[in-house]
Amino acid sequence: MDQIIEVFSNVGLMQLTIGHVAMWLIAFVLLYLAIKKGVEPLLLLPIAFGIFATNFPGTGLLDEGGLFYIFYNYGIANELIPPLIFLGLGAMTDFGPVLSNPKTLLLGAAAQLGVYAAFFGAILIGFTAQEAATIGIIGGADGPTSIYLAANLAPHLLGTVAVAAYSYMALVPIIIPPVAKLLTTKKEREMIMYMVRTPSKTERIIFPILISIVIMLLVPMAAPLIAMFALGNLFMESGVVERLTGVSRDALMNIVTIFLGVGVGSTMTAQTFLNPKTLGVFAMGVVAFAVATAGGVLIAKLMNLFVKNKVNPLIGAAGVSAVPMAARVVQNMGMEANPQNYLLMHAMGPNVAGVIGTAVAAGAFIAALG
Predict the structure, then answer these.
(1) What are phi and psi for residue 200, nearest 5 degrees?
(2) 3-state secondary structure 230-280
(3) Given 115, 250, 358, 361, which is the most exposed site by the fewest CB atoms within 10 A?
(4) Exposed e or buried b for every residue in 15-47, given b needs 16+ CB within 10 A?
């Protein structure tokens, strides 16, 4: 009889709690958004299924040696997967717009104001400095960087921060327009920009090497992300390793995305997710994103007071590094104001600069708080 009782006590159904069911419902909502609404499906779908599977009691998936334990500890906690994602991003990134108009780099840097605003805001509402830094980085709208920083400073918030970061990336078309319109006039939004020049192949090859030197000397803790990002870009711009470029942006990117999504989802157990801190993370994430958008627009307006070749302030909103979605939103807003306005390539300048800026901010936080 004792053996029969032990067998039944080990059945998952006997260990099921309301918290587990609540997490299934959250997973189903995310699956719906990914499949039906097309919201960042490449990551949201594996994250959602990771949440679903990890909230079955008694499976051992998260126990030492379990499948999800391996995904998380050997892919995310040891900082392997986010830099590999950056390798693929580098192989897909065109720095031509930045090289054509270098001052747009400042707009990508300005958008990091949202990161620091949310950081101090999170401290004021009771989060630790490490947790606040992890929350603040959501304002950069860069999922891999958010995951990388969370794994370093606040692993217990990893799942929550990842879902918040990718949710707000998906909400770029909803969050950016009202903020950008509030801070610009119709005349400013109508402003047509022209390409200043076409950068040479030599410039394109030198640029990833140059940013590696500058950033890794100034912010050494950002090296894992920046080094892989620059390497991927060098693969593409050199033109001599097409196979490596193709693997980096396609096969490798797809494989590590699966591991990343499932590993992140596996951290979202009922015990870690269903608490008041979760609401705080999502609330401060909105603040971070809105301030980041506003920062880029306002710095663009300020820049126009001092430069001869003025920029359309809308492109500052693309400083949040949701590549290329933020640039597309800016393009649509520009054409709405003026059908002859083509801002996409100009917006890509601050867009890719935002990727670099967010990685640098993450490195600075790790150096200061790690």
Answers:
(1) -80, 165
(2) HHHHHHHHHCCCHHHHHHHHCHHHHHHHHHHHHHHHCCCCHHHHCCHHHHH
(3) 250
(4) eeeeebeebbebbeebbebbeeeebbbebbbbb
Cβ neighbours of residue 202 closer than 8 Å, sequence gap 6 or more: none
- Taking the CA atoms of residue 311, residue 108, residue 296 and residue 107 in that order, the dihedral angle to the nearest 10 degrees is -30
Residue 145 identity: T
Element (H, E) at 363: helix 344-369
Instruction: Annotate 127-162 with DSSP letters as a single string.
Output: --HHHHHHHHGGGGT-HHHHHHHHHHH-GGGHHHHH
> CA-CA distance, 144 to 118, in Å (whole number)?
18
How high is the pLDDT of residue 10? 57
Alpha-carbon separation of residue 65 from 61, 75, 151 (angstroms): 8, 13, 19
Q: How far is CA 21 from CA 101, 296, 358, in A?
A: 52, 41, 36
For residues 347 and 313, give the distance between their C-alpha atoms in angstroms, rounded to a whole number.
10
Answer whether residue 4 shows pLDDT above 60: no
Q: What is the pLDDT of residues 73-82, one digit of tens each?
A: 888 888 889 9
How far apart CA 347 and CA 293 sit, in angstroms, is 13
- Which two tokens mark 119? 């950081």
Q: What angle do CA 363, 67, 263 make, to 5 degrees?
A: 30
Longest Cα–Cα distance in the chain: 87
Whether the ω angle into residue 324 lies within 30 degrees of 0, i.e. cis, is yes
Would you state the structure tokens that stand for residue 149, as one six-digit string? 């920083």
| pLDDT > 90 fraction of the chain, expressed in percent and rounded | 48
Please name which of 305, 336, 298, 307 lies closest in space to residue 107, comparing C-alpha atoms. Answer: 298
- The DSSP symbol for 38 reads -
Total-model pTM: 0.83
State which amino acid sits at residue 178: P
Q: C-alpha distances in angstroms, 108 versus 113, 118, 263, 322, 347?
A: 10, 17, 30, 11, 10
Note the pLDDT of residue 42.
85
